[in-house]
Amino acid sequence: MKRWLALLGLSAEAGEVFASGSVVTEEVPAAGLTLTWDRNLLVIHDVKIPGGRVEINYLEAYCRSGSTKRRWEETVIPHRTEKLEAASDGKFIQLLCKVEGGVEVQHEIRASQDAVTFQVTAVNRGPAYVDAVWVQPCIRLGPFTGRSQEDYLERSFIFVDGKLTPLDQTRRTTEAIYKGGQVYVPAGIGLADVNPRPISPDVPSNGLIGCFSADDRYILATAWEPYQELFQGINVCLHSDFRLGGLNAGETKTARGKIYLIKNDPEELLRRYQRDFESRR
């Protein structure tokens, strides 16, 4: 018996388990989040969450300055995105955006157990300044929240005066070039250079915007550094729109982002955000 166990690489204790008719199995860690990307749609897959996936328009738009009081088609800078690399295990994707004027933007996207990390490097390879000031990833949250455009605000939040504040409890306005949605502008960003939708007088106290899952078990939140605005959109979506600030010829700029998909624990979310962003400034 011992010789047979040794050949299998098992101990004598394991032989006792077989003899008793019991089976002991070691728990295998879950695979965590995985990623796919096709035709500007980045998908986060996770069987545990409502809907099993979260879709992101990545990227929706590169935007010029002076955007607040201008028609959207005059703000958007044409761009084209291609996939350079994708790991077979769904844990890494590399994209390249070519933005009109000669700017090339490389995106390295990595999935872990409960988060997705974005590292963005933009280089102006053209001969002149390109007014690519801010960029929109649009996270679609209907299946995750189980809500519609009419009622997902109460499931969504930012932080105001250091406190988690549901979006339906923030101060909201209605006047803008385009109706619907709400823009939350951080300190230091000019009000002339944000989304042409109503601007809240509430100033975010950090870069997080997020929501709770339909079953109340999870939080999905996102943050970027640097960021131009937080935005509640018109398609059951939330944005943290990151900032490039325009690029001179030959200039390189970077940005980094995070999507957290964690258990429903706002204090843990804040700890993660502070570690990932505030401690690195």
Question: How would you describe the overall organization of this protein?
Answer:
It is a single chain. This protein is mainly β. The protein has a single domain, classed as Beta-galactosidase, Chain A, domain 5, CATH 2.70.98. It contains five helices and 17 strands. It has helices at 2-7, 12-20, 72-75, 142-145, 266-276, and strands at 34-38, 41-45, 53-63, 76-77, 79-86, 92-99, 103-111, 115-124, 134-140, 156-160, 163-166, 182-184, 204-212, 218-225, 227-232, 237-243, 252-263. Strands 5-6-7-8-17-14-13-10-11 form a nine-stranded antiparallel β-sheet, covered by helices on one side. Strands 1, 2, 3, 4, 9, 12, 15 and 16 form an eight-stranded antiparallel β-sheet that branches. A hairpin with a 3-residue loop joins strand 6 and strand 7.
Secondary-structure element sequence?
HHEEEHEEEEEEHEEEEEEEEH
By secondary-structure content and strand pairing, the structural class works out as: mainly beta
Which word captures the global form? Answer: globular
Q: Report the count of strand segments.
A: 17
Q: Tell me the count of domains.
A: 1
Give a quick account of the main beta sheet: strands, pairing sense, barrel closure.
9 strands, antiparallel
CATH topology: Beta-galactosidase, Chain A, domain 5
Distance between the termini: 62 Å
- Poorly predicted regions are 1-29
What value does the average pLDDT take? 91
| CATH C-level name | Mainly Beta
Q: What would CATH call the architecture?
A: Distorted Sandwich
| Structure annotation, total helices | 5
Strand line-up across the major sheet? 5-6-7-8-17-14-13-10-11
If you compute it from the alpha carbons, what radius of gyration comes out, rounded to the nearest whole angstrom? 23 Å
Report strand %: 35-45%
